[in-house]
Amino acid sequence: MNDEQEEPPGRMLRPKVRVLGEEALVPESSVISPAPNRFSHELSGQDGPFPAGTRVLLLVEGGERSWVADAAGTYAEVKSASLRELSS
After folding, report:
1. In sequence order, what are the residues at sequence separation of 6 or more whose Cβ sits closer than 8 angstroms to the Cβ of residue 85?
2. pLDDT one-digit tens code per residue, 31-70
3. How far is the C-alpha of 33 from the C-alpha of 69, rounded, in Å?
4. Which one of 1, 16, 61, 83 is most buried, counting C-beta atoms within 10 A?
5. Would you state the CATH architecture of domain 29-85?
6. Alpha-carbon distances of 19 from 22, 23, 54, rounded to whole Å
């Protein structure tokens, strides 16, 4: 089909497959194992590698920045102001 013709309804278009380079991997030093299975906070906005709404476990509380881990075990520094405590 050329660009001027419409695709038939229900046809799913997929992007071309490409292999990401080594720089796309999360470094081992940024992953904890086992990953947390309970969480103390939720991110109120996008911060670091986490989208808004991600539930995290607060590991190190700092002034402006704190360290957290998500359900995948990703360990990262986020803005303390973006952390919202979960109610028990």
Report:
1. 40, 41
2. 999 999 999 999 999 998 999 999 999 999 989 999 999 9
3. 10
4. 83
5. Roll (2.30)
6. 10, 11, 27
| Domain coordinates in residue numbering, the chain | 29-85
Long-range contacts for 65-69 (Cβ within 8 Å, ≥24 apart)? 68/41, 69/32, 69/35, 69/36
Tokens of 10: 């229900």
Which two three-digit tokens encode residue 7?
A: 């695709």
Please choose, from the candidates 62, 52, 49, the residue with its C-alpha nearest in 3D space to the C-alpha of residue 82.
Answer: 52
Question: What amino acid occupies position 33?
Answer: S
d(CA 56, CA 58): 6
Output b/e per residue, 36-61; b: 16+ Cβ within 10 A: beebebbbeeebbebeeebbbbbeee
pTM for this predicted structure: 0.69
